[in-house]
Amino acid sequence: xxxxxxxxxxxxxxxxxxxxxxxxxxxxxxxxxxxxxxxxxxxxxxxxxxxxxxxxxxxxxxxxxxxxxxxxxxxxxxxxxxxxxxxxxxxxxxxxxxxxxxxxxxxxxxxxxxxxxxxxxx
Length: 122
Known about the structure:
Blueprint: H1 4-17, E1 24-27, H2 30-37, E2 54-58, E3 63-68, E4 82-86, H3 98-111, E5 118-120
Parallel strand pairs: 1-5, 3-4
Antiparallel strand pairs: 1-2, 2-3
């Protein structure tokens, strides 16, 4: 298991490696969520199939993990400053498209953050 200090140092190395620094970096690849935030879900949990998450890294050192409500239990060991939760499935209504739910929540969070330039995974 990764430590909070280890994840922080990895994020610092990422920022140091950039010649042009955006205000925010948006990451969503599972291996990057593990590497930079120690966040991973279990492939053996049915409710996690087709789940995605987003890690937002701010130039000043902020880290925000965006997940849906069925992934909350997997955030316990995440090494981030805060977790934002999108309600995807509530058991009473048809669930919307899961990826769009996370994307919309990440966009909502970013709108409340300072800055206007963004880096992202292609």
